[in-house]
Amino acid sequence: MTRGFIYSIAAATLALSAPAMAGTVAPGDVVFADMSVATSMTGETGDPANGRKVFADRKKGNCLACHANTDLKNELFHGDVGPSLDGAGSRWSPEQLRAIVANSKQVFGDQTVMPGFYSLVVGKDIAKEFEGKTILSAQEVEDVVAYLTTLTD
Amino acid sequence: MLSLKSAALAGVILSGLSSFALAGGPVDEELVIDGETQITTRTKAAEGVPFEEVTSGWLYRTEETRALEADSFQNPGMLYVERGEEIWNTVDGEAGKSCASCHGDGQEFLKGVGAAYPKWNAKAGKPFNIELQINQCREDNMQAKPYKFDSADQKALTTYIKNQSLGMPMHVDLAQGDMQSWWDRGKETYYTRMGQLNLSCSNCHEENNGNYIRADHLSQGNVNGFPTYRLKQADMVSLHNRFRGCIRDTRAEFPAAFSDELMALEVYVTWRGTGLGIETPSVRQ
Question: What is the mean pLDDT of the segment spanning A115-131?
Fold first, then answer.
C-alpha cells in the first residue's frame, strides 16, 4: 500500500467535505517541525501563476486584506494588519512559507491574527457552510507558496 | 508605504466617489455639528477599558464622510430622524395611542434618554436597548405589534430617539439589576475567537485599530453613532446588524438580533466607549 493511499483512506474516514486527492495530506496530519513543513502537502509542485490569483482573490486567500504586495499594486486597497510581503521569498524558505500559510499559529504562536489556511482548528460557531472545510485546499496553499517564493528582494 | 499610497490614488480616480477611498486617521479634528453642537470624539478611557483614550469611528473616516456628518442638511440620516418624529406622534395599535400620548413632546422627554441605554429592564430580567424598549411600549401600552428586526420604522424611531441625545456623553449604569453579569458575558464574547477565520472583536478593534484591513480603516468599534447611515448600503444600519456583519465576516454563524448574546455584547461594547458623545445619525462608509 502506498503512503498516499493510506492518507486518502484516513481523509475519507474523517469525512472531509473537500475531496481528498490521493497523496494529499489531511489538515490534521500536516507535520510541522522547526517552523517548517518539509514537503509538498499534495506531492505536486505549486503553480505560482495560480497562486498569485488565489492570493488576490477575496473569496480565497484575500491576503491583500492584511498585507501589502508591490507585485499586485494594480489591485486596490492593500491592508497593513500584517507586514508587507515584498521580499517574503528572500526572508523565508519555501518550507517555512508552507508552514506560515497552512497554519500560521504554528510559526507565530496562538496570538497571531493571521488565519490558518489549511487547518481545521478554527474559532467558535463556524458557519455551517464552512464546517469541516479549510479556507484553501492543500494544492492552493502549494500554489500560494510557489508564488510567495517569487517575491524576492 | 508606496503601494498603499498608489492604491489610495487609484481609488480616488477609479471610484469617482472619493468617500470610498482610503481614509486617513484617526485624524486630529473636532466634530462640531452645524457649527453648533460639539461632539466628544476622543476622551480619556473609563477605568478598566484597555485604551488610554477612546475614539469615535468618525475620526477614522474620509474627509468627505466626516463632512457629511458635520452638516445636518447634508447628512442623509436626518431624513430618518424626521420620519422617527412622525412615528413618535402617530397613533398605532388597539389602545389608540402614540408614543406622544404617554410621553408628550419627544424633544423634551427624550433628552438624554438614548445616551443611557442599554438599561436594566426589571420586568424582562435583562438589559434593554432602545429597540426592545420601543417594542415593549408598543405591546404593553399601545397594544400594537412589536416591530420586526430592522423594519424601516424601527430604525427611524430608534434614530430619532438617539438623536435627541446628540452630543451627550454615552454611559451605561452597571449598578442596575444584574447588568454586571451581562457585562461579564459580553466581555467573554468580545475576546472569543470565532469562525473559520478564527478572529475575535479584540483582534480587529483593539489590537489593530488604526490599521487598514483592505479598504477599511479599523476603528475601535464604538457604538456611539448608531443607528448609522452607511454610504455603502445607502440606508440606516442598526447596531445589531453591524454586530452580525462583523461576526459573519469571521465566517461564524451569527446570533439572532436582540439575543442574550448580542445584548450582553451591546452592554459591554457600550461601556468601552463611555464618555463619547452620541453622534446618531453618524455617517460611515
Answer: 97
